[in-house]
């Protein structure tokens, strides 16, 4: 299956994500009920730094539609590298793609990961990699647990393959909330669980970006042999951007130390 328009690709992502992240359509419905129109700030993906699914290869699905790289980020402790992409049309979401630096992990983890990536058919590029789900056959549950011991990020990726990790509501576009704090308070009243790692709000107005997220929920997921286990899936994120004094325009980048904490929204010991 191949999506030939950018909107078609975005629709595909939302359809897939909203099924495994039931909190996201629930939050959107609640916001719509307040008369809000939702603008998506960014869509985030996770991958391994191995051909043919490295960051640049996945990014080509978006550069083909006029996106260009807007930043590069490094996460030393989690052993990740990421690129962000922006489009000249400010109404289109930013794209954030991170990749695991696979070579920095144990030989056992590297072998497992190479076995997964080898299942991606040769010649697959760009959008085809996203839309050909599942990316690889279900892993044995024991393998998933083994990978989690080394990297929560790699464990998530081994189970879910290449698919959206999160969509993000742009708080600036909401009319009935004065701040991200006010929005977070409302989420709590509505019964959602926030990622409190490093405080619920990551980033400051001075850094030009404030972010928060809910914790991923556990849903039943299929492993090798048809075994079902409840594991953390995806989360929903919220971002408020500030004007960059240098340009007068909304800041388009990301803050590495904030993203570092946001990654923990899928941690298996904290998921709800
Ligand atoms: Ni994000």
Largest sheet: 7 strands, mixed
Rg calculated over all Cα atoms:
18 Å
Distance between the terminal alpha carbons, to the nearest Å?
A: 33 Å
Number of helices: 9
Sheet with most strands: strand arrangement: 2-3-4-1-5-9-6
Q: What is the global morphology?
A: globular
Summed up, the domain count is 1
Helix content: 25-40%
CATH architecture descriptor = Roll
Written description of the protein model:
The chain has 272 residues and is an alpha+beta fold. The protein has a single domain, classed as 2,3-Dihydroxybiphenyl 1,2-Dioxygenase, domain 1 (Roll). The chain is built from nine helices and nine strands. The protein is globular and about 50 Å long. The site of nickel (II) ion (NI) has 7 residues, from β1 and β5.
How are the SSEs ordered, and which strands pair?
Layout: H1 6-20, H2 23-33, E1 40-48, H3 55-63, E2 68-75, E3 80-86, E4 94-100, H4 107-117, H5 126-131, H6 141-150, H7 152-160, E5 164-170, H8 180-189, E6 209-213, E7 218-222, E8 228-232, E9 235-241, H9 256-262
Parallel strand pairs: 1-4, 5-9
Antiparallel strand pairs: 1-5, 2-3, 3-4, 6-9, 7-8
The protein binds nickel (II) ion.
């Amino acid at each position: 299956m191949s999506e030939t328009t950018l909107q078609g690709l975005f629709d595909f992502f939302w359809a897939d994500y909203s099924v495994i992240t039931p909190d996201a359509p629930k939050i959107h419905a609640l916001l719509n009920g307040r008369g809000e129109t939702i603008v998506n700030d960014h869509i985030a993906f996770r991958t391994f730094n191995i051909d043919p699914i490295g960051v640049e290869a996945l990014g080509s699905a978006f550069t083909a539609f006029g996106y260009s790289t807007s930043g590069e980020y490094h996460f030393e402790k989690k052993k990740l590298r990421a690129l962000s992409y922006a489009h000249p049309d400010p109404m289109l979401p930013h794209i954030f793609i991170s990749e695991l630096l696979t070579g920095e992990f144990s030989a056992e983890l590297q072998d497992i990961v190479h076995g997964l990536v080898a299942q991606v058919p040769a010649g697959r590029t760009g959008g085809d990699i996203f839309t050909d789900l599942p990316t690889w056959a279900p892993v044995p549950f024991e393998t998933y647990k083994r990978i989690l011991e080394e990297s929560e990020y790699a464990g998530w990726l081994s189970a879910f393959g290449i698919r959206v990790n999160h969509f993000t509501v742009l708080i600036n576009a909401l009319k009935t909330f004065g701040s991200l704090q006010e929005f977070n308070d409302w989420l709590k009243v509505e019964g959602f669980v926030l990622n409190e790692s490093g405080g619920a709000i990551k980033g400051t107005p001075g850094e030009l970006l404030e972010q928060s997220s809910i914790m991923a929920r556990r849903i039943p997921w299929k492993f090798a042999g048809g075994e079902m286990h409840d594991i953390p899936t995806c989360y929903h994120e919220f971002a408020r951007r500030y004007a960059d004094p240098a340009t007068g325009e909304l800041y388009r980048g990301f803050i590495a130390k904030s993203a570092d904490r946001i990654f923990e929204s899928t941690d298996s010991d904290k998921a709800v």
